[in-house]
Amino acid sequence: IRYCSLHFRTPAKPEPAPLTDQVLSGYDPELWRALQKEEFELFYQPRIDLRQGEICGAEALIRWRHPEKGLQSPDTFIPQCEASGLIVPMGYWIIQEAGRALPAIQEAGMEGRIGINLSFRQFQDTYLASTIERLLDEHNMSSQAMEFELTETALCNDEEHVRNTIEQLSRRGVEFSLDDFGTGYSSFSLLQKLPITTLKIDKSFVDGIPGNPDDEEIVRAIINLAHNLNKQVIAEGVETRAQLEFLIRHDCDQVQGFFFSRPVPLDQFLTLVSRRQKQSSL
Ligand code: C2E
Ligand code: MG
Ligand code: MG
Ligand code: MG
């Protein structure tokens, strides 16, 4: 079944999101209040370059420090934020927050980009590209330090608008990666047309290596596809040395996963970066 994603498929044109629905239903009041009160926090998970053995970037992952329930993972609130549209203002907060953390991260010695997840829902905002550009300007953020992670779902939505958005931002030096690659539907022609620099192999395939012949074949195929299209490839969810060794053997560029580090709060991430700068071995 999972091979489906590698088939050609013409993306269906979605209905435009009716704005009135969003206005009438409003955002979830508790989540809206949490956003106002800055209860959300970005954690950072390092990406490791397999040739240098060094931290070459990070992914920003949102958490909710709920006053009573404690730390909440994104799976418990992101779907709700997408449904109500709150992900749009929240998404801008996330970009600003990563921008605020950037100077300290660079100061600690990290040279790569920070990956920020963009939900398909955020692309329904016509002003996505121009708002991001304005945020970059207002907060003096270097577009060379930012990378946006999209899923195949986002690409399938409204091809032309998504394409314009990606092109407008990449002209400014922002990069784009394709997240959870292999689990959705993407057409090879779109992969080639869009300025996407990186494919992220979904954890579900990485889980099966080494040992599961199908997963091994899929991982190898994605690595080759990426390289043949002149893109970088990252394996997500690397938890064991055996997985790491398989990926090194098959020429994967970067890895991310609990084997190196879980996503951690900013201060711990800074410590991690400065410590690794000194050791720099796998
Ligand atoms: P994602 O973008 O695919 O992020 C990778 C997820 O895999 C993260 O879960 C990360 O903690 C987890 N992960 C990384 N390495 C390992 C590993 O070795 N083992 C295991 N078991 N898990 C690993 P997390 O942080 O819970 O985020 C889940 C999803 O929520 C993300 O998937 C992304 O789709 C969404 N999300 C997270 N932060 C944001 C955000 O700031 N904005 C948006 N729009 N979505 C976000
Ligand atoms: Mg991601
Ligand atoms: Mg992913
Ligand atoms: Mg995911």
UniProtKB/TrEMBL annotation:
Record bears the keyword Membrane: no
Residue ranges occupied by any EAL domain in the UniProt entry: 24-277
Enzyme Commission number(s) from the entry: 3.1.4.52
Keyword field: c-di-GMP
GO molecular function: cyclic-guanylate-specific phosphodiesterase activity
Designated name of the protein: cyclic-guanylate-specific phosphodiesterase
Organism from which the protein derives: Marinobacterium stanieri
Residue window of the full protein shown: 128 to 409 of 409
